[in-house]
Amino acid sequence: MLHFFPPNNEKVRAKIPAMAGTVDVLVANLEDGVPMADKEAARAGLVELAQTVDFGSTQLWTRVNSLDSPWCLDDMTAAVLEAGNAIDVIILPKVEGPEDIHWADRLLAQLEAKAGLERPILIHAILETARGVANVEEICLASPRMQGISLGPADLAANRRMKTTRVGGGHPDYLVRADPNPDDLEAPRQHFQQDLWHYTLARMVDACVTAGILPYYGPFGDIRDLVACGDQFRNAYLLGCVGAWTLHPDQIAVAKEVFSPSMAEVAHARRVIEAMGDGTGAIMLDGKMEDDASVKQCHVVVTLAEQLAASDPELAERYGIGG
Ligand code: GLV
Ligand code: MG
Predict the structure, then answer these.
(1) Could you tell me if 30 and 39 are in contact, meaning their C-beta atoms sit under 8 angstroms apart?
(2) 29: β partners
(3) Residues 209 and 270 in one domain
(4) Are the C-beta atoms of residues 53 and 15 closer than 8 Å to each other?
(5) CA 123 – ligand 1 centroid, Å
(6) Which is the closest atom of ligand 1 to the Cα of 156?
(7) Residue ranges around ligand 1 (CB below 6 Å)
(8) What would the DSSP string read from start to end of 274-296?
(9) Which of 103, 34, 101 is nearest to 71 (CA)?
(10) 292: CA distance to ligand 2 center in Å?
(11) Are 32 and 153 contained in the same domain?
């Protein structure tokens, strides 16, 4: 989970040392959500945290303001020159094309050299404009600094003139409906909500895999609705995403649960791998065909479990991995 927090808020800042080690990534957000009057305080809050907190196994990222704002340059400069030792990744919002990544890449190189940093700071782009979606493959391939991409459903909806006012998730009016009963046109008909984000997520996943970088779902705004939040996260997980943003502590457990395979999935995958021997040929297991391709699907699940277990003792125990 990428856990977003406003670094301009002193009370929130005070809680950050205790959060280090409990989430995968802490994102100091300088962009949308931070009022204009607090932009400098947010930047200063990021620098203070970067210079004073031991983040342990948690990575510190920051979301800077967009390239078309008056704050982006100062955000990037402060992030690298004053907080660069602690920051792993810079999130660039509203990325429109590879030229945005080229600009950030060159600027980061200059600033890193000036600061004497010995490892590169990576770039994570937010896909939240129609033009960005149209250019997503080129964006992913624009620089070896590219770490991954998140879907930004709120800005993307606005930019596309979609008519949802929700931050992520479904919409009750975006649906398919069963045919009418020809003898009773008024009779109620079954209908199901569809996923507004399927096309964009699937396209984003393909672009990320092509470039060897990681796809994430972004924010889910209805903090009270943890069920729908889990559904949105799960759709993204099933389509190939590796994580999502959390905007409130209650969403952290949801993200952890959804993006970690269940014990049943892992046990099944191990059984198929075991039964498939050298991984070639075809077998029947519980009435289902397994072959060279399905064993690869199973390796995806087991490899993910192993990667998660390596940094999370609770998951290591769940999956029966390690000491
Ligand atoms: C995130 O930044 C969004 O616009 O959804
Ligand atoms: Mg946005």
Answers:
(1) yes
(2) 63
(3) no
(4) no
(5) 17
(6) 4
(7) 32, 93, 126, 128, 152-155, 218-219
(8) HHTTTT-SEEEETTEEEEHHHHH
(9) 34
(10) 41
(11) yes
What is the arithmetic mean of pLDDT over 214-227?
Answer: 98
Same-domain pairing of 133 and 175: yes
> Best of 91, 126, 204, 245 to mutate for ligand 1, by most ligand atoms within 8 A of CB?
126
Q: Which ligand is nearest to the CA of 151?
A: 1
Residue in 147, 155, 164 with CA at minimum distance from that of residue 219 = 155
State in Å: Cα 288 to ligand 2 middle. Answer: 43
What domain range includes position 280? 263-319
pLDDT of residue 26: 98
191 and 126 together in one domain: yes
Ligand nearest to the CA of 166: 1
User: pLDDT per residue over 33-46, tens digit each?
Assistant: 999 999 999 999 99
pLDDT of 85 higher than 90: yes
Per residue in 119-139, pLDDT (tens digit) is: 999 999 999 999 999 999 999
Count of domains for the chain: 2
The ligand whose atoms approach the alpha carbon of 149 most closely is 1
For residue 63, the ligand 1 atom closest to its alpha carbon is 2
Per-residue pLDDT, 322: 74
- For residue 290, the model assigns a pLDDT of 98
- pTM higher than 0.90, yes or no? yes
User: 89 is written with which tokens?
Assistant: 């990744």
- Residue 128 CA: nearest ligand 1 atom is 4
Give residue 77's pLDDT: 98
What span, in angstroms and rounded, lies between the C-alpha atoms of 293 and 281? 10
Q: Determine the distance separating the centroid of ligand 2 and the alpha carbon of 68, expressed in angstroms.
A: 13
Give the end of a domain, one of 258, 273, 298.
Answer: 258
From 258, 275, 301, the end of a domain falls on 258
Q: How much is the average pLDDT of 246-266?
A: 97
Q: What residues form DSSP beta bridges with 127?
A: 151
The residue whose two tokens read 């020159």 is 81
pLDDT of 323 higher than 60: no
- Indicate if 119 and 19 belong to the same structural domain: yes
Considering the domain architecture, whether residues 285 and 172 belong to the same structural domain is answered as no
Which residue's alpha carbon is at the smallest distance from atom 1 of ligand 1?
152
Domain identity same for 70 and 218: yes
